[in-house]
Amino acid sequence: MLEKIYEADIDEIEEELAGFEQRISEGTFPKTYKVYNINDKEFKLKDRFLADIQSDIALFDDILDELDSLKLVDKDPKLKKLATEVKTILMQKDNPNEPERKVVIFTEYIDTAKYLEAHLENAFPSCCITVKGDLNKNKTEEILRNFDTTHKKPEDNYKILITTDKMSEGFNLNRAGAVINYDIPWNPTRVIQRVGRINRISKRVFDNLYIYNFFPTLQGATYVRSREIATEKMFLIHNTLGEDAKIFEPDEEPSPSQLFKRIMENPDKMEEESFQTKIRQLYADIASSSPEVIKRIGELPPRIKVAKRYVDSNLVVFIKKGLGLFIRGILGDGNKPEDLVFENTLALIECKKEEKAVTFSESFWDSYYNVKELKESSGPPSSEISIEKKALNNVNTLLQGKIPELESYLPFLRELREDILEYKTLSDYTLRRIANLNSLNKDKAKIQKTKDELGKLQKELGTDYLDKVKSKLGQLETEVIIAIENVKEQI
């Protein structure tokens, strides 16, 4: 919540906090959410609390004084690089028929926006317009006249928009052909929203759109893990939605650890073969040399169990359920089942084309069921299950309630039910919103509130969002299990 209001003025902050308190009282948030009145007698640590705040303020003042004395801003390499790239972008044309490019520079912080404005205004006189938390109606109109191709009264007074994330949602800025992320938020959705300001469906202006990202140095990244965290979350988005857009780099792939480490590593090591590349190459080799094997794999049933010879005894089980992939097994004789990493199982499951299957060992079925039991006990926490269950119950109740006002949302509700049961792409936040829908009350005001929330959800997710997921993933089996037992070779 803080990240949404820290840019606002005092009146807006007070209004938002009042609404937040009201939503807590209505039970919108978990019971652990609570509002504390500092003047309440029950607030026994008032003096200590206020003293800690004053101590923090004093510490920040000292840090600012020390930074000022170092005069780091006078020789800011990041700012110089920004000015250079902006100049290149403004001059760039991929074809002669394109209009002149503009650029949107995003930052999370108001102070950073002010800092950039002061310096870029010197480098590009009268070309910059800045949003620093003061996004009133007049300024919004001025920005849209200069950056929105659909505006009825377009102008060309500004080429550079410097803004906080206040403009990362709901604005069409497609007269700009580039977005520069001067800093990377921990929430990668915010980055996608930023890029979405210039990547407007059915409103194409430029053949190519460019995304520039500033990241911390390797030393800085040790302390500020924004890129690593955002990249790992981006991996989840790719895996869930099959996102095609490349946000962080042109050859982006959904691997949570490799994206960050690969760019930061020594260039001499970047030619080393990654695990994902190795897997793709193995698959390509098989498809090329033995296409009949690939065809046969496509005809196999959803549950496969096979045994082969190996130097040690072990069992590896791949379980795909919905969008989840679990790799678990038993390594060594008599060991307990455990979660495994794919990289570590490749050698265990490889075999030659001509290799024959062998008979299962006597312990196979016991080991197999032990792994299956581990799978069941390693599911989501009970709190997640309860949220998902409540959301599903609410959807079912709304579908069966025959409420005329909600009739137009029945197809969307059926999509939500199918998603919850089969695909599980909805975030905890979205599930909680569905779980908090008032599905039983027939009061008109509360029905309208439920209708409004469904409208918001449908707008955010899209009317055909599940079809897009299905088209990316293909037809998923409810559960696919591949069990491979290695039977120790007898000497």
**How large a portion of the residues is in β-strands, by DSSP E?**
5-15%
Q: What are the segments in which pLDDT stays under 50 over at least 5 consecutive residues?
A: 236-273
Number of helices: 19
Give the N-to-C terminal Cα separation: 65 Å
Radius of gyration: 28 Å
Task: Explain how this protein is built.
This protein is of the alpha/beta class and 491 residues long. The protein has three domains: 71 residues, no CATH class; 140 residues, Rossmann fold; 192 residues, no CATH class. It is built from 19 helices and ten strands. The strands form two sheets. The protein has a five-stranded parallel β-sheet, sandwiched between helices. A five-stranded mixed β-sheet has the order 6-10-7-8-9, sandwiched between helices. Helix 11 crosses helix 12. It is globular, with a radius of gyration of 28 Å. About 8% of the residues have low confidence.
Give a nutshell description of this structure.
The chain is of the alpha/beta class and 491 residues long.
Q: Notable features of this structure?
A:
single chain, 491 residues, alpha/beta, Rossmann fold, 5-stranded parallel beta sheet, 5-stranded mixed beta sheet, globular
Layout of SSEs?
Layout lengths: L1 H4 L4 H16 L20 H25 L6 H15 L10 E5 L3 H14 L4 E4 L5 H11 L12 E4 L12 E6 L6 H9 L13 E4 L4 H6 L2 H16 L16 H7 L10 H15 L1 H8 L4 E8 L3 E8 L2 E8 L6 E2 L2 H8 L14 H14 L4 H19 L9 H14 L4 H8 L8 H18 L3 H9 L5 E10 L3
Parallel strand pairs: 1-3, 1-4, 2-3, 4-5, 6-10
Antiparallel strand pairs: 7-8, 7-10, 8-9
Helix pairs in contact: 11-12, 15-16, 15-17
